[in-house]
Design brief:
alpha/beta; 7 strands
Length: 269
């Protein structure tokens, strides 16, 4: 799950830049698990936290468009729109064969906040990259996952689904995993240029995954817009691996087709 940031799970404090984290005033609450993306080009790589740490996502408290005292916090997703975990989505679920765990995670998701499809894509890659072996814990560590690329009798596949275009906002409107627009972490302080940069980085991540023989399926749900639909179409490993799903029934059809495709790949190998 992703929105304008990704939640890696609040137990993974060893992934954080502790020096930066120590400068933050969390008030009566604490870090919920969302992280900022790394700068210097590392937001499009599968570098591990051991190579470069992440900064905790920190949304300053506000009312309307006016920043207010940092000490006034309420719970995430509150209608008063106060930080510091505002719009932090539910935590990712590392790879597992436990169907109940997967279904429960899906049921916990809430659509809220902005949209950075590039961040969802890069964290999908990090879940499959062998560089991250031994990092995620749980079933992944127990089964020595992720396996190396091109391991015999193994396929790596990712499904990227979104119902929206990449978004970036003016300051005092929304903070994302790239911080406020004015910080220039996308190389610009212009909204349109920043959005175009997010689109470019999505394409970079898709290319990197396909270069490593990860099978990429993409789904445009509820007609999210022509720009993202074109990006998703080009991101998919093959033209038939892109699905335009304006409705829930068509979304179900898309997932059935993806399941059949993966089954056929397994049989063919």
């Amino acid at each position: 799950p992703f929105a304008q940031a990704v939640n890696v799970g609040n137990t993974r404090t060893d992934w954080l830049d502790s020096t930066y984290a120590g400068t933050l005033n969390w008030g009566p609450t604490s870090w919920m698990g969302c992280v900022d993306e790394r700068t210097g080009g590392d937001d499009v790589t599968d570098k591990t936290p051991a190579s470069k740490k992440f900064r905790p996502y920190y949304y300053p408290s506000r009312t309307g468009n006016v920043w207010i005292d940092k000490g006034k916090y309420v719970t995430p997703l509150n209608a008063t729109q106060r930080g510091p975990n505002l719009y932090c989505s539910p935590a990712v679920l590392p790879l597992t064969a436990n169907k109940e765990a997967i279904e429960n995670k899906i049921l916990s998701l809430t659509a809220v906040g902005g949209t950075h499809v590039n961040i969802g894509a890069v964290w999908g890659w990090r879940m499959l990259s062998p560089n991250w072996r031994g990092t995620w814990g749980g079933d992944m560590n127990a089964n020595d996952l992720p396996l190396d690329y091109n391991t015999p009798k193994m396929n790596k596949a990712v499904i990227i689904m979104t119902d929206g275009e990449n978004t970036m906002y003016e300051d005092n409107t929304n903070r994302s995993a790239f911080d406020l627009l004015s910080k220039g972490n996308l190389g610009t302080t212009n909204v349109t240029t920043a959005k175009n940069e997010l689109d470019k980085r999505l394409s970079q991540v898709c290319t990197s995954m396909k270069t490593n023989n990860i099978i990429v399926y993409t789904i445009a749900f509820r007609s999210p817009g022509s720009t993202i639909q074109t990006l998703l179409r080009n991101c998919a490993s093959m033209p038939e691996y892109y699905f335009d799903s304006p409705s829930g029934s068509e979304l179900q059809t898309a997932f059935r087709a993806i399941g059949d495709s993966l089954s056929n790949l397994r049989v063919s190998r």
